Amino acid sequence: MQRVIVFLVIVVGSALAGGLTTVVHRPPALLQASVPREVSVVTEELAPGLPPIVPAIELRETRVQALELRRGDTFVGALTRQGIDRTVGKEIAAALQHGGVNLRRVKPHHGLEVTWNLDGEPIAVKYVPSPWLGFNAIATDNGWEVRRVETSANVRVAPVSGEVRGSLFQAVEEAGESAPLALDLVEIFSSELDFTADTKPGDRFRLLVEKRYAADTFVEYGRILVAQYLSDGRVLTGIDFERSGTHGYYDLNGRSLRKTFLKSPLEFTRITSGFTYARPHPILGGVRPHLAIDYAAPVGTPVRAVAEGHVVAAGWDGGSGLSVHLRHRDSYETLYNHLSRIGAGMQPGARVSQRQVIGYVGATGLATGPHLDFRVIKRGEFVNPLGERFIPGDVIPAEERAAFLRRARELVRRLEDQATLD
């Protein structure tokens, strides 16, 4: 259903909404009309695709012009560039803001359209900041009337499946989807699989995902309802389940996939050097221990805390360059070295949450190029982050287990019916 909220101002004028173009003759005196102060709100429920009912008006020939919003544009500036008097542009902007529009965040992808009459006067301005929300400013004898149009999302559940040949991003694109879906899939299994180190050609995936449409135009992905990832004969399954108003992902046994530690501090990158006690040092020479995992990534790539904890130190640390040192539960510590800059709030003693950005990839200290040197300490000794078995996630409580198992069985059955994995 579409919801249309109409701001009526003293004398009701014309309206412009959806594909309906309606025009009111506007005398020149209207150019100096003040912004109305008395506003009442009327809500109408409309069938999808139907324009709102509007009063009978005089129709005249018009010209509709789509305006290009550029980076750094202001709303009034964009109107002025297209020939609208700046004073009129300010009146339109004031009316829209009075009607609840935030014009401080005008962006290039927002829609902006002006309707002109044959006298070269703007009689309607349509501003669309998102596919779900639009505003029409209509010229009337008493100023600019603002109409708000809300579009409810048409949600469809779609199956997606694919096989990794090069990268997971490529596989998702070959399945007809886009990068945000790949990131959502990685996020589900980020505590189970290091997609940097463990993704291999021949890996397979399948999932059911909500797709949100405005009418018949795809806009964005919703939640992944169920996902499976097959690698080296191991099948990972994630079931979306809501508890106390919060969604999370669980395996088939009802154990949370959100474990205490992430498998990787970066979302997507590649490993250039592994954990070893004998590696030829690229700068100092000789064979030295490398008790870390090196992740190659562009300068400025966000670095995430792999677990919640507290900051031990943050700043310059000799050959490690800019570094952040965190302490976690159960005698674990993590180090993030060679950063280009440190994240906000990284002061000794500060608390950090899992996935919080604590710094950005760089090449400071003894580094031959941009990368993250990531280290894990357990009870005072360095351990291999890729081989460590971290603390498992929480389990669905007994009183919710039956509901979870019903949902899990239903979603897996639907997934098997609609998408292949083998």
Describe this structure in words.
This protein is mainly β and 422 residues long. The chain folds into three domains: 2-151, Nuclear Transport Factor 2, Chain: A; 154-259 and 395-418, Roll (Nuclear Transport Factor 2, Chain: A); 270-383, Glucose Permease (Domain IIA). It is 14% helix and 39% strand. Strands 13, 16, 17, 18, 19, 20, 21, 22, 23 and 24 form a ten-stranded antiparallel beta sheet that branches. Strands 2-1-7-6-5-4-3 form a seven-stranded antiparallel beta sheet, covered by helices on one side. A hairpin with a 2-residue loop joins β10 and β11. α1 (75-81) packs antiparallel against α2 (86-98) and α3 (168-174) crosses α4 (179-188). The longest helix has 21 residues, at 398-418.
Q: What value does the Rg take, in angstroms? A: 28 Å
What gap, in angstroms, lies between the N and C termini?
40 Å
Overall SS class: mainly beta
So what's the overall shape? globular
Arithmetic mean pLDDT: 81
Please sum up the structure shown.
With about 425 residues, the chain is mainly β.
Key attributes of the depicted protein:
Glucose Permease (Domain IIA), 14% helix, 10-stranded antiparallel beta sheet, mainly beta, Nuclear Transport Factor 2, Chain: A, disordered N terminus, 7-stranded antiparallel beta sheet, single chain, 422 residues
Topology:
Elements: E1 2-8, E2 40-46, E3 62-66, H1 75-81, H2 86-98, E4 111-117, E5 122-130, E6 133-140, E7 143-151, E8 154-163, H3 168-174, H4 179-188, E9 204-214, E10 217-231, E11 234-243, E12 246-250, E13 270-273, E14 276-280, E15 287-290, E16 293-296, E17 302-304, E18 309-316, E19 322-327, E20 332-342, E21 351-352, E22 357-361, E23 371-378, E24 381-383, H5 398-418
Antiparallel strand pairs: 1-2, 1-7, 3-4, 4-5, 5-6, 6-7, 8-9, 9-10, 10-11, 11-12, 13-16, 14-15, 16-23, 17-22, 18-19, 18-21, 19-20, 20-22, 20-23, 23-24
